[in-house]
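Reopening this ticket.

The earlier resolution said the output was attached, but the attachment link was broken on my side. Pasting everything inline this time so it's all in one place.
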Amino acid sequence: MHRYRSHTCGELKIDDVDSTVRISGWVHRKRDHGNLLFVDLRDHYGITQCVIETSEAHFAALEGARPESVLTITGRVVRRTEDTINPALPTGEVEIRIDDLEIQSIAAELPLQVFGDQVYPEETRLRYRFLDLRREKMHQNIMLRSAVINSIRRRMVDQGFFEFQTPILTASSPEGARDFLVPSRLHPGTFYALPQAPQQFKQLAMIGGFDRYFQIAPCFRDEDARADRSSEFYQLDIEMSFVEQEDVFQAVEPVLAGIFSEFSDRKVDDLFPRIAYADALLKYGTDKPDLRNPIVISDITEAFAGSGFSIFAKAIEKGAVVRAIPAPGANGWPRSFFDKMNDWARSEGAAGLGYIKFADGEGSGPIAKNLDADRQKMIRELAGVGDGDAVFFACDKAAGAANLAGLARTKLGDDLEILEADVFRFCWITDFPMFEFDETEKKLDFSHNPFSMPQGGLGALNTKDPLEIVSFQYDIVCNGIELSSGAIRNHLPEIMYRAFEIAGYSQAQVESDFSGMLNALQYGAPPHGGIAPGIDRIVMLLADEPNIREVIMFPMNQRAEDLMMGAPAEVTPRHLRELHLRLIPPEKKPGESGEKT
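Inline output:
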């Protein structure tokens, strides 16, 4: 018999009764029933109940083994009595009568319990992540992640894609988020950067003639963590040659629909509607719409222009717009519901959130009193509301009105409990603006991916207002969560020069900052495009977890710290000398460390 096990803790069944077996695992929990001691032994595969009598030789050793100690148990498989069968366990019909016991390691007193559903602070869980991973839910999440990645790989290969690896040590890019930098010992004063994404490398693979690439790619961005974002993350990186936008969609849709169908009991809508960016902002107030929410925002500026409701009428004269957010069935809700919506809007920085309630063909409320019947009818028709419904209004410049309306749409969907349940709804957001005006820097900048192909090509760059140029850029969204951005790439040097010129880059800057890409484009580049759905966010949705750290084996905290390994950490003077580096401590603020203000 094998030294540690003949079976795992999850495979013993009725057919094994009267067999002598050996299992190894962790002490999950113990129960003392007087003259009998029951121990649940757990490994990666499951749990097996073991039992020993007080009179037997190994009783004292087993009784003294703390939870999470590691044991090897040898004994005879017996059938449980009818009243002790545990239908929740695959091994619940049998147990092991312990004949021999070997203690592999004794656990110290636990900082968090593995057995049970106790809630612990995130700091404790991350500091003792190896214990947290033993807990059932976390273990399931990580195994789900592994299964999802394996399925993705299979699906991509079946579609004719090839998996290649791209460099981890690369050059810093001036675009995108902040890089993590790695000093070079061999080249003093220079730095590598960890890749924010394999963007340029996967394009270079297409230029290198490989046609269909994918990779489960690690990416690194030195930015603040959020519930759905981590400094280190993985994505399904995809690139394809000789394709248009729709070809990328057709390649990605069956992979995502298949993954969500395979690993969830929820309905998966295999329709992926295409929604232009401008329409998304108008109808949903966001470029990440949750299509489970039936509320559709509408523009009703016309109904208030020149009206008796002077607050909106005067704002419209100064360039404001009015967006209507329907509240289906809300007419019957108490006044407090509407007051709370107004208070909520103020908490979001808005002046308020006006409303009209409709019943018997007429509107009621403070705003309705200032509108004639024709204007009220126009509002009903444009907003798609009727008797029994209410409608809220966001009045501001276009961007501000869209933002408030989108937030109100989400809140109403939750408060009115009208979101479609147990379904995943996807959509593509297309036609993103190529450029945007940076209010901080007071200049034009790229709004999305600078390597994207503008719709209309060089002609559009040379003749159109830059803020009116849209690009072949797209996002894939699921239930209001952005899974990925992608684009059809610019494969022509002259377009790259011109696009970057509009964004304020000189030709010399482009040649310096993007020399690798620019050089490659000059030697025959195919039309190509791609996308990179986030693995962590996919698993987060499938596991129905609100925080991305629940589906990552060893995540950092929100301050980008690894509490378990103690990173980031100071290094020794020897390391600094080898790298030719000198530390400059951050400036202390007035009042710190006794400094006088």
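Reporter confirms the inline version is readable. DSSP finds 18 helices and 24 strands in the chain. The CA atoms of residues 1 and 7 lie 10 Å apart.
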